[in-house]
Amino acid sequence: MLITGGYDVVQKTFNGEPIPLAFELNVSTEIYDPATGLRELISPIGATPEAIFNPDYSHVFQLPWVTDTGQDIVVLGEEAKPVLMQADSALAGNFWEIDLPRPGPAKGGNGASTVMLPLRLDSQAWGYQPGAIMMVGGGTDSQLASADALDFAGGAWTHRIDLDTERHHPSTTILPDGKIFVVGGHPKAALPKPQNALLIDPAQNFSVVSSGQMVTTRGYHTVSLLLPDGRVLVAGGRTGGVTGPTDEQPTMEIYSPPYLLSLIHIS
Question: Which pLDDT score, from 0 to 100, does residue 267 have?
Answer without folding.
Answer: 44
